[in-house]
Amino acid sequence: MLELVIVDDHPAVRSGLIGLLEEGEGLRVVASAATAREGFEAIADLRPDIALLDLHLPDDDGLSLCLRTRALPMPPRVVIYSAFANDGLAVRAAIAGASAVLAKSAPPHVLTAVLRGEVRPTVDPRALRALGARLEAPELAVLGMLVHGVAEEEVATTLGLTREQALARRAQILARLDGRRPLAAA
Q1: Model confidence over 76-102: pLDDT tens digits?
Q2: Is-contact 120 81, C-beta < 8 A?
Q3: Given a cut of 50, is residue 186 above it in pLDDT?
Q4: What's the predicted TM-score (pTM) here?
Q5: Mean pLDDT across the chain, nearest whole number?
Q6: What's the pLDDT score for residue 185?
Q7: Cα dihedral: 51, 101, 106, 131 (round 10)
Q8: Interatomic CA distance for residues 87 and 126, integer angstroms
Q9: Beta-carbon neighbour count of residue 62 at 10 Å?
Q10: What's the rounded Cα separation, in Å, for the pair 53 and 35?
Q11: Helix 87-96 crosses helix 125-132 at what angle (to 10 degrees)?
């Protein structure tokens, strides 16, 4: 049984997901939260197998929450679940450490297959090139490894960085792509 934490600021979405996922085989919702802060606390305390994160939260964004979640000692797989899912978001989510991005309009069977790890959506090469064109060479190395499924620890080792330094570099890459100031990685 895979345990799941849902983080979405809309009560109706949380309730609907809980109802949908509780009916599915092999998934159990152990907590839901409306904010990134509440979600991070639940994830850190409960150590679920999977975190299902909305992109737009009232106190932070799902990508920042994903990056902080992936910094935990035993991080869950993360799926970004958004009405704004697109190819560019999939690239940015890979940098944050998400295993998948899924549109909220996806059919329920696709959602459960992605949560179970049976299906992993791919990153569109055009979106990868478009976002990659905005990065420096060292950032491109990080992007390439993460998008192609290289483990986060191996990325850090390959670049001669500590885990914390690698997370900080990923936070800087996300900030550059989002056109904002660098985020705190953890």
Answers
A1: 999 999 998 888 898 899 899 998 999
A2: no
A3: no
A4: 0.87
A5: 88
A6: 45
A7: 160
A8: 8
A9: 30
A10: 10
A11: 70
